């Protein structure tokens, strides 16, 4: 994994929101990680931890407060000219959480999918454009008859397939999937995850897969980052994270998932993470800050202070 | 154990412009005192409609309970007048709703919302109501309850709000508690807290719980018995162990198989159920699951299967249990679970012999 080239580098990304009266929400507060070419990086955490904001900041839906995002070595947020932005937009696409809100109800499915093709001038004739749309629909498991229909005629799972087809239309290298399955039923979730995995293999795509469902995310991710209050607290190979979670928050998160297995549930012990909430009034910023990531074993990063290092090393198995 | 609620052949239809949607198509089950019965199914399977029908909360029009009975303490709830039902609702049978953001009244204080039921059903006012409210807030684990009385829902987090919803439901010591996806809107760590709370309350008060959910992990954690629902019908009923370790219906196999487990090999695809559930505007002839069922036989498309009993507590509606049905091999995930946890069951033994009958 270390040998592979970095597709995306996030350096000290900060995204603060001003909520009025001088108060600021630090949704993402100094995040650094890399995504390698062809890998799936899962980003997990509970609501409000800043995982969706991270995705949105990377693709430029928000103007980052501070920090850099390098895509193929170029700073994407510094790009100014229309032409440069267009080129970048083509290589990075997003799949949204809510398949009901993310498709324009007044456009046909064909037009929704072809919007990117039109903007980037990827088709020279109307026939070529339509054929591309038909191909995409078939790629995601729909049929070409669906192109002339409207979003309301589809189920949640089918709409998410349309969202995936739209993202694929401009042949991107990198896709940010923001909770693409959490609005879907269990049996449909598996279908969509399988489709995304298959597309990733066939088209050698790179994903940032944002989710709160830890068991599904393991299925698709090569590496997983765990976020807590705007920071990464652990970043590790997916299997290794489940085998040997190090950070207390990761442990509490993993121990809270109910598994479809009554015997396991009868004996499951929940680990409770008790950290005073960061940034509380009256505390110095030193107290509430989450320490930076350190590499505890090759490829396994944990947020810790110098003092905690020894204790963590003792935990290594 | 004594049966407290008995649902027989419950049928609910919604009359829409497009036609009649048969949301629940003949559901029967019993709820025993002090137990937790989980009703599992995908969205649109009719599990929420079933629970709302028991509470008589189906809006009419467009909805209507067209057939069946709901027996509770010798009375058929379907036949009660609205006024009589108001005395049952909230007092004998209470409900916890899915979304704590929308099920509380944003303009009423926490105290008023909890005391509403106390006043109505038990005639408690003044200090008595306040005392009982504080008791309830303590029971559901709200820190500093005195200070919460005058607060409004928006001042509380999602988990705290769901605790308030639970406190309201528990206010009059209901005999039956219906929890409709009570943790779906919550984070996993908060979900774990709420599930522990519900189990704790059940132990203290002995209330029976109908737990509606689509999450099989939550079912494994909470349920004593499980009923699996598909396309408006129950298709398999059994104890939690029977459903997870000896399932017999192909839909139950599909549901269990499509849940990811930490031990799974990530290079394999997740076993997904192909296709989508049927449209209940025009329910299919025969077994509604047949078009998505890889084990479907000719008869599945022609005739609806009855329930075949497997044990005293376990039954499934699939033609695969018919004496003339061929031997079948359930998916690997199902086989693995059975062999791992119940190697001595007849189910596991017949799997080893080469197939189920």
Automatic annotation (TrEMBL), chain A:
Keyword terms, alphabetized: ATP-binding, Nucleotide-binding, Transport
Xref: InterPro entries: AAA+_ATPase, ABC_transp_ATP-bind, ABC_transporter-like_ATP-bd, ABC_transporter-like_CS, Oligopep_ABC_C, P-loop_NTPase
Protein name: ABC transporter ATP-binding protein
PANTHER family, per database record: D,D-DIPEPTIDE TRANSPORT ATP-BINDING PROTEIN DDPF-RELATED, TRANSPORT ATP-BINDING PROTEIN
Assigned protein family: Belongs to the ABC transporter superfamily.
One annotated GO molecular function: ATP binding
Top-level taxon in the UniProt lineage: Bacteria
Gene3D superfamilies: P-loop containing nucleotide triphosphate hydrolases (3.40.50.300)
Record carries keyword Transport: yes
SUPFAM superfamilies: P-loop containing nucleoside triphosphate hydrolases
Domain ABC transporter: 8-254
TrEMBL record, chain B:
Record keyword Signal present: no
Keyword line: ATP-binding, Cell membrane, Membrane, Nucleotide-binding, Transport
Listed name of the protein: ABC transporter ATP-binding protein
Family of this protein: Belongs to the ABC transporter superfamily.
SUPFAM superfamilies in the record: P-loop containing nucleoside triphosphate hydrolases
Source species: Exiguobacterium antarcticum
SMART domains: AAA
Pfam families: ABC_tran, oligo_HPY
Phylogenetic lineage: Bacteria, Bacillati, Bacillota, Bacilli, Bacillales
Major subcellular site: membrane
Every ABC transporter domain range: 5-256
UniProt GO molecular function: ATP binding
Compartmental location: Cell membrane
Topology within the bilayer: Peripheral membrane protein
């Amino acid at each position: 994994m270390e040998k592979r080239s970095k597709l995306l580098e996030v350096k000290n990304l900060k995204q603060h929101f001003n909520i009025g009266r001088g108060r600021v929400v630090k949704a993402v507060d100094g995040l650094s990680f890399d995504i390698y070419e062809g890998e799936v990086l899962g980003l997990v955490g509970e609501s409000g931890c800043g995982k969706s904001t991270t995705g949105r900041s990377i693709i430029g839906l928000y103007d980052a407060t501070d920090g850099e995002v390098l895509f193929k070595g170029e700073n994407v947020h510094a790009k100014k000219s229309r032409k440069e932005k267009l080129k970048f937009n083509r290589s990075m696409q997003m799949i949204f959480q809510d398949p009901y809100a993310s498709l324009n109800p007044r456009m046909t499915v064909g037009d929704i999918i072809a919007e990117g093709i039109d903007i980037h001038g990827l088709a020279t004739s109307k026939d070529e454009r339509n054929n591309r749309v038909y191909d995409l629909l078939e790629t995601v498991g729909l049929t070409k008859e669906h192109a002339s229909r409207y979003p309301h005629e589809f189920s949640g799972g089918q709409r998410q397939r349309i969202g995936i087809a739209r993202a694929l239309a401009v042949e991107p290298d990198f896709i940010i999937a923001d909770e693409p399955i959490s609005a879907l039923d269990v049996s449909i979730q598996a279908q969509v995850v399988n489709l995304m995995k298959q597309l990733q293999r066939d088209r050698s795509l790179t994903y940032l897969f944002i989710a709160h469902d830890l068991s599904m995310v393991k299925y698709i991710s090569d590496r997983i980052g765990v976020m807590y209050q705007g920071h990464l607290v652990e970043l590790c190979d997916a299997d290794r994270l489940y085998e040997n979670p190090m950070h207390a928050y990761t442990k509490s998160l993993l121990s809270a998932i109910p598994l479809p297995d009554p015997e396991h549930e009868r004996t499951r012990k929940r680990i409770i993470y008790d950290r005073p909430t960061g940034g509380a009034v009256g505390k110095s910023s030193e107290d509430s800050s989450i320490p930076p990531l350190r590499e505890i074993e090759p490829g396994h990063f944990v947020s810790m202070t110098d003092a905690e290092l020894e204790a963590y090393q003792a935990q290594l198995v | 154990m004594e049966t407290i609620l008995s649902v027989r052949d419950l049928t609910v239809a919604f009359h829409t412009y497009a036609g009649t949607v048969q949301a629940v198509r003949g559901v029967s089950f019993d709820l025993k005192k002090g137990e937790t019965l989980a009703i599992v199914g995908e969205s649109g399977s009719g599990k929420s409609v079933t629970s709302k029908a028991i509470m008589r909360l189906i809006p009419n029009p467009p909805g209507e309970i067209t057939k069946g009975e709901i027996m509770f303490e010798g009375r058929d709830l379907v036949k009660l007048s609205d006024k009589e039902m108001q005395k049952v609702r909230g007092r004998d049978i209470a409900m916890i709703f899915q979304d704590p953001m929308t099920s509380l009244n944003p303009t009423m204080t926490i105290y008023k919302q909890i005391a509403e039921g106390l006043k109505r059903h038990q005639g408690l006012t003044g200090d008595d109501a306040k005392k009982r409210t504080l008791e309830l807030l303590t029971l559901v684990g709200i820190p500093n309850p005195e200070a919460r009385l005058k607060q409004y829902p928006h001042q509380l987090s999602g988990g705290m709000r769901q605790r308030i919803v639970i406190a309201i439901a528990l206010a009059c010591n209901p005999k039956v508690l219906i929890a409709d996806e009570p943790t779906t809107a919550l984070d996993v760590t908060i979900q774990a807290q709420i599930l522990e709370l519900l189990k704790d309350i059940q132990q203290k008060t002995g209330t029976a719980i109908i737990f509606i959910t689509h999450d099989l992990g939550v079912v494994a954690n909470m349920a004593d018995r499980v009923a699996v629902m598909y396309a408006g019908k129950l298709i398999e009923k059994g104890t939690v162990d029977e459903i997870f370790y000896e399932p017999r219906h192909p839909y139950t196999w599909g549901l269990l198989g499509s849940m990811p487990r930490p031990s799974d090999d990530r290079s394999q695809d997740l076993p997904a159920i192909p296709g989508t559930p049927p449209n209940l505007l025009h329910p299919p002839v025969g077994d509604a699951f047949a078009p998505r069922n890889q084990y479907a036989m000719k008869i599945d498309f022609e005739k609806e299967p009855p329930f075949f009993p497997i044990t005293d507590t376990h039954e499934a509606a699939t033609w695969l249990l018919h004496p003339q049905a061929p031997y079948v091999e359930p998916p690997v995930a199902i086989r693995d679970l059975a062999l791992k946890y119940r190697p001595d069951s007849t189910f596991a033994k017949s799997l080893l012999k080469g197939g189920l009958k």
